[in-house]
Amino acid sequence: MSDDTDSDTELEENYYTFLNLPKDATAEQINAAYRKLSRVYHPDKHMDGENKHKAEMLFNRTKKAYEVLSDPQKRAIYDSVGEKGLRTDGWELIHRTKTPAEIREEYQRLAQAAEERKLLQSTNPRGNVTISVNATEVFSPYDDREVPHVEVSSMSISQSIEAPITRRDTVIMSGNLVSTNGNGSGGFVVCGRRLLNKGWLELDIGAGGRTLSPVLSVTGGTSLNFREHGVIPALFSSLSVQLDKHTIGSLTLNASSQSAMTTQIDRSNDKCAWSTSFVIGSPHIYFSIAYTHKMIENELKLKVAAKVGTFGFLAEYGAEKKVSKYSSVLAAVSIGVPTGVILKFKIVRSQQTYVFPIHLSEDIVPASVFYATVTPVIVWFLVKKSIIDPMLADRKNIENDKIKRNNEQRMNLRRQEAAAAIDLMTHTYERIVNEEIERGGIIIANATYGCLEQNGNFRADASIDVKIPLQCLSDLPGFYDPCVGEDKVLRFEYLYNNRPNLRIGFFKLDLFKWSLFHRYSIKFQILCASKVLNLNLILMPGKIEDDRLRKPYKSNATVSGSSNNINEILTISSFTGVSAVNANESLEQENKNITEIALPVCQDPVYEESSPFVPNITLESLDVVEAQLGPLLESGGAFKPKDCNARHHVAIVVPFRDRYAHLSIFLRNMHPFLMKQNITYRIFIIEQTNGQSFNRAALMNIGFLEAMKLYPWDCFIFHDVDLLPLDNRNLYTCPRQPRHMSVAVDEFNYRLPYRTIFGGVSAMTREHFVLVNGFSNSFFGWGAEDDDMSNRLRSANLFIARYPINIARYIMLKHPKEKANPKRYENLVNGMHKIGTDGLNSIKYEIYSNKEYPTFSWYYAELKITEQKS
């Protein structure tokens, strides 16, 4: 029941994978790999006509891969945007060509989606339906009727929408209908809201709020209820204090016909949340406490709560399950005096809520408690097995069929190339087998790769024989994906030391999509998947580099089972063949390497509906900040999770000049904020020399280029040093579209100034940044460079994504206003004509100095660009 959009299903060639090279391969390594494959696949080395044709096909593929990787310019384009970037001349990068019908269909889909988003954002509809069911006769019958009487005792419906009048004024219309025991009532309310400097007012008559400081806020309001015999006034006020980064305390006063004062403390983190409150009022005084345990991997929350006071007591327990991106279900059992036993069901879909409280008994009856507890479990199991699972399976089959249709021609070519490669390896295979027999090494008896049937056998139409490429350790020619989009298995039998018995290695590769096989070799995927079966497995030859640790090491490829017996060690030593090594000497080091690499993939943190981050804006020296944070970081302000492999690798690029006080506050807050997000990141401070006006855009281009020299970051966050986030849910990652991060800044009253803004903090993948040729280098002084980037994104058919305004909140550190560039609007108008010539491909600069400090990487750059004076 996923709500995610479809992904690009086009399979692309991976030249590094075909040549069996790491992404940072040197020119010598590329030449050596090309010569090695050329000796096998050159057509002149095959006399047979059929083999000559097969060799020609593979040699052309080898030659194409070599031509791209040996050309620095083509290689840079390929590394950034993939094979599609090479389908045009030079830097003119375009998307895959589509038919007119596909273009019309895509345009209509995007236009409809944009219209729906616009409608939803402008109206912000909210709804609630509550249906109360009285089923007390089931457990406490009033008479001897055979069929208990179950009735709907009450029903209520409420709905509200917003209607923006101006940028600061909004009209809110809401209505409700209530029917209880045959008596109905309803109401319709029109409210007006106007944005002020630091708060808002609402006419009900109204309510308002004001932020007194980053940790203190107050909300208050009053209302008048006009009745037949008079007017009943009401007053409410609330004071909230941020006690620490996870805890909020509040004091609320409600003066009305039923007055009360409430003291409440809420605490929330990644694993749990709890809340406690004490209420003094009329007619009751009570104390309550609630605890929620979060099971993020299962998208499940377990909740318990208790309340005791002058009214009696109440205990509640339940569970909430997220079934899709926008939908969740909740079931809870409430037991109390005098309420009895109540079973509650709640269904939430986006901003619509449906609640079904079922009153089972007026007293605490053990039978009603038992059935209230087991009924939701049984209902969920039946719904999941009969509706949800078949729906997900059907959706997966449809997606797989679509992938296969889109890549049918390419898959046929892969199949032909794999078959040709295996035929051409036959002589090499026979030679290696003879050598292994003589030395008592490894003989691969059988090896199959593909999808399984339910009985455990391989599907004939979705599996391939890979005995020869596995024996030759040629994991790329000869391997292809026989069942795109489905879980695949590699199973092989082998002989060791000429022993007659066979051992079976069974590796389920369900942790990885085939697209990842284009980034690493198949052997590395088996290595990662080995954690599932608790196998000690390294199956990558030669020099490799851990993508997470960035620590190169030499490793022989080793497979072992659960035993450390030397006779059960499978060793593959190099690309050219298979041989045995002394496992007793290498096993300890290999197991250490496996422990470092074979970690689970990090999951994005999941927070409650509100998870504020409170910046500490007290000024400290950089030395103090480094002493506090340095032990937690690697040199250069780098960080990576210790218990998992990061899903996101993010470079934080900060254009900088003469704001060292802001830099200290920025580093002091950003590192603790980012460490909680399970990402690998590094902060780059790009400082401009004196002599020219500040050029923020050019510095960000420099940051991108210098960061890419250290590591192939998949995500770039371009961040002003004077902005600090206010919500932990604001994840510093890159979605499928460029993301504007700083949506609501206190300087702009926490509102989006205009729709196309892309300044402050923004996130882009490296592919998108290269696609638009980076920022323009023409904007000296303050202003308009971000608007130019917004235009570039639209010209590349990209749109700006944003978090909701209550998540993407920032505060701006105070600073003097920068001098505006009088030519900024002229540059903005002319910018659309210079996308291909003004940006990454035209930046000229010199790095005077760079250094890795404990909390950041510093680059001191001089621009070699002429500033146009007004």
UniProtKB/TrEMBL annotation:
Its main location: membrane. One of its GO terms (biological process) is carbohydrate metabolic process. This is J domain-containing protein. SMART domains: DnaJ. It holds the Pfam family Glyco_transf_7N. It is found in: Membrane. Pathway: Protein modification; protein glycosylation. GO terms for molecular function: glycosyltransferase activity. It comes from Glossina brevipalpis. InterPro entries: DnaJ-like_C11_C, DnaJ_domain, DNAJC11-like_beta-barrel, Galactosyl_T, Galactosyl_T_C, Galactosyl_T_N, J_dom_sf, Mito_inner_membrane_organizer. It comes from the Eukaryota. PROSITE patterns: DNAJ_2. Keywords: Chaperone, Glycoprotein, Glycosyltransferase, Membrane, Signal-anchor, Transferase, Transmembrane, Transmembrane helix. One of its GO terms (cellular component) is membrane. The keyword Membrane applies. Residues 14-82 form the J domain. It is a single-pass type II membrane protein. PANTHER family: DNAJ HOMOLOG SUBFAMILY C MEMBER 11. Belongs to the glycosyltransferase 7 family.
